[in-house]
Amino acid sequence: MTDITADGQARTAAAGSNPAAPGGGRTVASAVTPAVIARLARGVTADGEGGTADTIAPLTGETLATLPLSTPADVERAFQVARRAQPAWAALPVRRRAAVLLRFHDLLLRRQDEVLDLIQAETGKARLHAFEEVMAVASAARHYGHRAASYLRDRRRGGAIPGLTSAVEARRPKGVIGQISPWNYPFELSVGDALPAFVAGNAVVNKPDTQTALTALWARELFIEAGLPAEVWQIVLGDGPVVGPAVVDRADYVAFTGSTRTGREVAQKAAARLVGASLELGGKNAMLVLADADLDRAAEGAVRACFSSAGQLCISIERLFVHRSVAEDFLARFAERTAALRLGGGLAYGADMGSLVSPRQLETVGRHVDEAVKAGATVVTGGRARPDLGPLFYEPTILDGVTPEMAVCAEETFGPVVSIYRFDTDDEAVTAANATPYGLNSSVWTRNLRRGRAVAARLHTGTVNVNEAYAAAYGSVASPMGGMGDSGLGRRHGAEGILRYTEAQTVAVQRLLPIGPSMGMDDEKFARLFTTGLKAMKAFRLK
Ligand code: NAD
């Protein structure tokens, strides 16, 4: 079966024998025209010296765009422009900056189809999974648009001496944030982390992955339409190991999302400069199906947990632990749903899973599966590439009998592959789930919510979803989201997600008497008086 049409559009087709889903009549080429690409490419800070790079449309393997690349000198210029613009932006009342976020929210929901096309064209993911990015960005824009003033307001604190000292904790913007983002969720990971930086009064120099730069450039354009001064958001492009460090070298704070390996390099560079960094890194996330789980809901949730964006999702589940008493029953339901997923790449809703993003991703996924099978694992469903659908399609795959010496057991595959393990007690499941240096996300399924919360408390991950895959925690944008261990440092979302972009400044005012001997009092008398004062403050439970 060949599903690439003459004009290069990948059609939707079934993973198993179920009928093909609707693919829609639009093609990547008709949606992302040369005029659109040329307009967006003007948003890159690059003077032409850095050359160009081609990106591909993963759905077809054809060239999508030729984009200008930035040199380190361009990065320097981007920082200079951003640095000049930042003070005036920071001087606006926070409500004016928040209004830009709220206008961006409305524009985005109105014009979402434009960015859904770009995300699909650049990543090859299914439209529903592209829409998850719109959901995430709109939620963050709404949250910080409404809550930023309260997160950032001055807070009165207890002074050194009651009545004589008053203290206020203020939040000042860091300045220019260096933001480095990967290709897998190009809209959410470029914009979601920039929103709180902007509303806190910072400028941003963003280096998205070149493969998915059009999506970030579109977002910048929409932000400018919503009222953001153009200079406040700079976008530079280029080779990660060259342009990435040039950004880290100049930033007042670094917001990095990507692999653990690169994250360590970024952290070392930031540490040497004594600038802070948030690091959102990889994972090898676990799902636990307890003995009392609703197996239909769990099987349906597992499909989303493992195969959203073809598993190229940092919080995706790659290890699935099932209680032995329900394992075969659960596996039958999960495998049936997985085999029925409709693979496809039309620029329309209808496909359940799209393509992988790059030949490198396809190679890793194929290698992890093939090596495991060679070493004795069994394929429950999937387990092969689908060149008949497009050059980078791979079937959603469930493996059983995976053992520790197989790469797929402990390494992040970052693809549509999950391994099944059985357990006998909750303790055993928790120990196995925690037996990884990563600690990003996990998912627990049980009918007993108290038990679910108790298990959650013992899992070493930054987020735990009870009876959901990942969207419950990720979508709760008022709560922090991030990783423990090798999955990172710092958090996005909630208070931490915005306060990371600020410096705390304490302004204390002293009235009437100084904090030291005064009015002829000698040192000893002062010490005695202050000792009495300290005792009194404790007695009156001053904090
Ligand atoms: P990557 O680390 O290769 O690249 C990420 C970004 O860093 C890219 O923009 C890249 O150009 C840039 N980069 C590369 N080398 C650099 C260097 N030396 N200095 C500075 N920047 C450099 O990661 P990837 O393969 O593009 O993305 C997939 C990884 O990202 C997976 O491991 C995934 O789990 C992780 N991820 C994590 C989260 C999260 O929130 N925790 C979200 C999405 C993806």
TrEMBL record:
PROSITE patterns: ALDEHYDE_DEHYDR_GLU. InterPro entries: Ald_DH/histidinol_DH, Ald_DH_C, Ald_DH_CS_GLU, Ald_DH_N, Aldehyde_DH_dom. Its EC number is 1.2.1.79. The active site is at residue 280. The keyword Oxidoreductase applies. Keywords: Oxidoreductase. Pfam families: Aldedh (PF00171). Residues 49-507 form the Aldehyde dehydrogenase domain. One of its GO terms (molecular function) is succinate-semialdehyde dehydrogenase (NADP+) activity. The keyword DNA damage does not apply. Residues 1-27 are annotated as: Disordered. Belongs to the aldehyde dehydrogenase family. This is Succinic semialdehyde dehydrogenase.
